[in-house]
Amino acid sequence: MIRQENSSSYQELNEDMECGPANSEPLDEVDQEDTSSTILPGIALYPGQAELLTCKHHFYDYIPPLVNPGQPGKIDCITQRINYTDPFTNTTKKHAVIVKGPQNVKKRELVFMQFHLNETDQDFSAIDYLLFSSFQEFLNSPNKSEFMKVCESSYSSWKFSGGFRTWVKMSLVKTKEENGLMAVEFRQEISVVNYIERRTKADTDQLFFVVFEWKDPFIQEVQDIVTANPWNMIALLCGIFLALFKAADFAKLSVKWMIKIRKRHLKRKTQALNHIS
Q1: Which residue of 190, 255, 272, 277 shows the fewest CB atoms closer than 10 Å?
Q2: Which GO terms describe its molecular function (predicted)?
Q3: Angular region, 20: left φ>0, alpha ψ -120 to 50, beta rest
Q4: Are residues 141 and 147 in contact, defined by beta-carbon separation less than 8 angstroms?
Q5: Sign of the CA dihedral 16, 144, 129, 155?
Q6: 153 contacts 147 by C-beta, under 8 angstroms
Q7: Which residues pair with 190 in a beta bridge?
């Protein structure tokens, strides 16, 4: 089986991954400039006991300095809160905060979020998240809880820890399988920077910072081409037999060479003994 990989821009794949109908929620003014050439990912976060303090969209890889870290601020993102049952256990209730991801790739749009955890009895603290390919499909879904259960079953989840700013650069990979279906997955490059704590009263609480951004304006397309047929199997068997024949011939020559060396050694030893006598 041969795997071919191609890259194409978001604009070229816009027909395959439509952003949604005209009667959906209005986007920001900046987003409307580039709606026809970008896709709209969704970010599902599972904060647990942590609280979302701020969420903002920025551009050109610039994040302004923090103002009153640890205090509630503006949430300028489109968010929704969903409760659903864990698809793997069917008993655990999960609480997710769904956020519209970065859209304007040309202007290097990013989403910056800050979470606050007051106190915890756990030894380690982290917030889980997963990425899915279409936030607009989530908005249009009549059963959003079931939609998130399917997403959690289909996509991988990651974590970001408290006390750091985790910068996630996303890339999208579309794989065309043998049956003709298209599978979509996210790949990430993550960088972590330590947060310098300057607050005077920060003994028990913890802050989480996370940034989501597209890595580049391309989607990677992977297609599997099956090349297995009877002639390939015959060629493979011929190659195996040829390799075995070569190995046997090499072993035969090695044995002959070792016998020859042994005889030469015994001959020299006999000559040396005769000379001593």
Answers
A1: 277
A2: chloride channel activity
A3: left
A4: yes
A5: negative
A6: no
A7: 168
Note the pLDDT of residue 188.
86
| C-alpha separations of 10 from 103, 156, 274 in Å | 10, 22, 88
Instruction: Please identify every stretch of the chain with a pLDDT value under 50, giving residue numbers as ranges.
Output: 1-2, 9-38
What tokens appear for 266 in the block? 């015994």
DSSP string, the chain: -EEEEEEEETTTTTTTS----TTSPPPPHHHHTTGGG----EEEEE-TT-EEEEEEEE-TT--PPPSSTTS---B-S-EEEEEEE-TTTSS-EEEEEEEE----TTTT-EEEEEEEE---SSSS-EEEEEEES-HHHHHH-S-HHHHHHHHHHHS-EEEEETTEEEEEEEEEEEEE-TTS-EEEEEEEEEEEEE-----SS-SS-EEEEEEEEEEEEEEEEEEEE----HHHHHHHHHHHHHHHHHHHHHHHHHHHHHHHHHHHHHHHHHHHHHHH-
- Tokens linked to 115: 């979470």
